[in-house]
Every structure is written in C-alpha cells, then in structure tokens.
Automatic annotation (TrEMBL):
<dbReference type="GO" id="GO:0046872">
    <property type="term" value="F:metal ion binding"/>
</dbReference>
<feature type="compositionally biased region" description="Low complexity">
    <location>
        <begin position="325"/>
        <end position="362"/>
    </location>
</feature>
<keyword id="KW-0378">Hydrolase</keyword>
<keyword id="KW-0479">Metal-binding</keyword>
<dbReference type="InterPro" id="IPR001915">
    <property type="entry name" value="Peptidase_M48"/>
</dbReference>
<protein>
    <recommendedName>
        <fullName>Peptidase M48 domain-containing protein</fullName>
    </recommendedName>
</protein>
<dbReference type="GO" id="GO:0004222">
    <property type="term" value="F:metalloendopeptidase activity"/>
</dbReference>
<dbReference type="GO" id="GO:0006508">
    <property type="term" value="P:proteolysis"/>
</dbReference>
<keyword id="KW-0482">Metalloprotease</keyword>
<feature type="region of interest" description="Disordered">
    <location>
        <begin position="310"/>
        <end position="362"/>
    </location>
</feature>
<keyword id="KW-0645">Protease</keyword>
<dbReference type="Pfam" id="PF01435">
    <property type="entry name" value="Peptidase_M48"/>
</dbReference>
<comment type="similarity">
    <text>Belongs to the peptidase M48 family.</text>
</comment>
<keyword id="KW-0862">Zinc</keyword>
<feature type="domain" description="Peptidase M48">
    <location>
        <begin position="142"/>
        <end position="189"/>
    </location>
</feature>
Amino acid sequence: CFNPIEEFLGQLLGGMSDDDLNLISAYGIDQIPMVYSLFVDWHDHDEYFGTFGEETQEILSAQDALEEFWSKPTAFDGGFRTDNILLVGMHGADMKDLGKLIPTLEVMYDLNGTNYTHTELATEIQAIIQTMPYEYDNPIFTFNAFAYPAGEEGDKIVMGDGIIEYLHYRNAGMEGPEFILGHEFGHHMQFEIDLPPLGGLPESLETRRYELMADALSAYFLAHEAGAHMRDHRILELQHAAFSVGDCNGMDPGHHGTPRQRGCAVAWGIGRAANATGADDVMHPADFGALFDQNLDKIMGLDESVCSHSFGSVPGGPRNTPGQTNSTTDTNDSTTKVSVTTVTTTTREETVTTTRTETVSD
C-alpha cells in the first residue's frame, strides 16, 4: 500500500536529529498549536489559512457554501444548524506570540507547587523551535485538521497549515483544502444527526466507517450542482486529494482508510451528486449516511461498481509531479473477510436491512 503521507513526513523527519524529536516529544511542542486552536482561540476576526494566508479566501468561501448547502435538506429539522461552526486556522507561527503561547501552556501544564513559571517554559520552547528546520513553520506542528463539538461554546473546525502544505506537495493544492474542509464539515453533520455506531464492528472499522463517510459527504457537496459543482479536471483533483490523505495502518484504531478506499468513498459521493435531479435535490445527512452504510462493504472492498461514477474512476495510484515519474501504486488494498452480520439501518423515511461483511485487515 503506497502511503504518500509517510513519504512526506519521512522527508521532514529525515532532516531532524534524534535530539530534536526527543525535545518535541518531551515538551509536547507538536501538541501546542492544536491545543491553542481547539481550547484557547475563540475569535475568528483575524483568521487566515495556509502558512502565508494563501488559502484564506478559498476556504472562507467554501465554508459559506457548505453552510448554505447543508441548510437545504435540514431547514425543517428543529435545532439543526449549519451556521454555528467556528472556523479557525492552526499555525505554528502562533507559538511565536507569548500572548498565545503562555495561555496555551497554562491549559496543558499545571506548574503549581514548582518554581517554574509558564513564561519560563514558553521561552524555553521558543528557543528549541528556533533551532529546528523551518522553525515555527515546520509542517509537522500543524499536520492535521479537526472537527470539534464544543457544546455550549459552539462547534469548531480547525485547519492546519501543515496539512495544506502537504496537499500542495501532492499537487492537490487547488481542490484539496476544500475537500479537507468539507470532510470536517461532514463530521459536524454526523454530530448533528447523532450518527449511531453500526454495532458489532471492531473499533478500527467503526472509525474507518465514520471517516470514509465524511469523505463521501465532502465529495457530495463538492460535486453537487448546489455545492461547488466541480467537473472534469477538478473532479480528478478531488479524487487525487482523497487518495493523498489515506494511510496504510489498517490495524490502528484511528485508521481513516487506505488511499484507494478514501478515493473510492469520494467516487461514491460524487456518484450521489451526479444522481441529483437538480440544485434543490440535496439528501438529508441521515439519509445519506444510511445509504452509505449499505455500500460500506463495497467501498472498503474497492468494488468497481461503487468506485466509479459518471465523471470517471477512482485513481489507482499517486499522480506524478511535472517532470517526475513514480511507478509505485497502491495495490495492496486486499481485504480479509471474517464474518457476516445483518444490520438494520433506519433512515428518516424507511428501515433497510442489509448484510455486511466485517473486514479486519488491508
């Protein structure tokens, strides 16, 4: 299984010494931007996206479009909102600012009873970062995106500079950030419908189901006439972005899906958009999720009947950069089937009973 994420991170980590990595771990430096973005930053007046703000306008426009798109089928659901999600960027550069770094460290570390202050700790951390490759802008500090149901404080989506830079590295920078945002917004739709577990699945497969469904929700929005209305080369870019964020750690409880499985989930979502009868024909997230669950086995098994759509098929491997060849393809996505379970899924309109096969390895 070709893993482009490992390739990218391997290049970054290859330029760092063991001492660098030990210091990052000991001080929790790679956690600081996440903690700040999730638990300290509750303002959106100065947000930007991408290390240099290069994706700001695209992402803000996509957020507005997502709110409008998912409000169509949920307009009559009491309490179902799409406009209460705070969108913030996650930047390594925030660690330069003691006014941001110190309150973040106060959340992370209780220094009561010590002779050590959070200001002293912040100064030490800044000195460490300044000795490392790319300093504050190193993508490993912000290589992620999150959907966070914050309760009374409001919901939140966090977009890291590192994941955006990675998408540019993979030549998926044009549509990739919108795909990631749509994926995280899809998680908020799952939160809103209180998506139940299928039951009887290992934790790793339940997580994968949840993540692949978010991929499909994102693709549905991006390809739908009422959403981003992507076609032609933009559809290929979208599938390439999905392929790029897959991983090969099938036994990890947090596994999101292999590159080809994520590409297949996107193809399936695009197919649902292609079947829409017009701009007003937007599926309710609960109905979309129920239909997805009926096709989950085929998506994880890379069944061609669901991994293709009217705009083309799921890519079988990484796309080459100009002037570069790469013969490595993601061919190790075979699955091991161990048991069959009958699952009843209830949509808002009907109850559907399907038979599913559990998959335990890639």
